From TrEMBL:
GO cellular component: cytoplasm
Domain Beta-ketoacyl-[acyl-carrier-protein] synthase III N-terminal positions: 106-182
HAMAP family cross-referenced by the UniProt entry: FabH (MF_01815)
Annotated gene: fabH
Protein's pathway: Lipid metabolism; fatty acid biosynthesis
Organism: Lactobacillus equicursoris DSM 19284 = JCM 14600 = CIP 110162
Domain notes: The last Arg residue of the ACP-binding site is essential for the weak association between ACP/AcpP and FabH.
UniProt name for this protein: Beta-ketoacyl-[acyl-carrier-protein] synthase III
Subunit relationships: Homodimer.
Amino acid sequence: MSFTRIVTAASYLPALVVDNDQLSAIMDTSDEWIYTRTGIKRRHLATDQNTSDLALEVAKKLLANSQLDPADLDLIVVATMSPDAATPSTAAIIQGKLGAKNAAAFDISAACSGFVYALDLADKMLADGQKSLVLGAEVLSKLLDWGDRSTAVLFGDGAGGVLLSKDADQPHFLASQLKTYGDKADELSAGITSPRPFPGQQHDYSYFQMNGRAVYTFATHQVPQSIVETARKAGVELGAIDAFLLHQANARIIKQVAKRLDQPLDKFPVNITECGNTSAASEAILLDECLAKGMVKKGQTIMLAGFGGGLTTGSLLVKL
Ligand code: ACO
């Protein structure tokens, strides 16, 4: 019997960077408002690239890092709330462009918890010796109304991911917990399409809508609980966890979670200042950056914790 391990990580951010002052020029907001409430200074935005294009760049890097052939892949899972299309899935587009002919490919939708959901799923799906790409990719700017300052300033575009291989002789995925609070579904929504009664042509479509206060309260209560319960499942003390890689939604949420867990803030790396909220991509991008900068290292134990639309939470304790 073998166990899943993370072989390598990668990320990709589109070239255009838009800072808070540039947003202030087109809407009634300010760098001061955005930074003090969220920790965001700037975000990357896709111009002529769609979600699969960003994810494909990550997939290519992962294969190059691990010197694998696309045909070696058994599974491709993409977590996204901004797919190119309802069908084909973003993962199928990538599978085709890579020529990963032996890989089953599909998307999952769990918003900002999506990357953790996808990792947990892939771990459980892989048979001994199999390999998978697990990607989080978003072009959230497609879902933004640039006339709505309450959401437009929060989000960014990007992609990240990991290559998993089920070939380890000891467990690396130590424990997980996925939770969904469908009774709170209306607190955060985007891309809702209405039914189209025969023979109508009109289609209603909604941009991001969020009850920011409700999501804030949800995150600052449910995320610490999810982390504590996941660590307890694995029999690991919080103090023994080297880093907590939280979904990058708001720097204040991250500070509050650290406080509730009574853990030092320097164990909670952030990149929201540079990237904004990239939903399912955020923890994947952060993981790649932390590995590249030596902020987390092979052999360390890290907690990935996502939260967002659904509403959902997902925590995963991983030994790198
Ligand atoms: N610039 C200036 N003023 C603004 C802006 C803006 N961009 N946006 C809103 N305001 C105004 C409001 O109109 C309001 O004005 P009023 O008092 O005159 O009515 C005032 O600022 C306060 O607005 P609130 O919405 O109450 O601001 P709050 O302090 O709650 O901060 C925020 C808003 C940052 C969104 C916060 O609630 C938050 O971070 N919530 C969590 C969001 C989150 O984590 N989402 C993650 C999930 S995303 C996902 O899953 C895809």
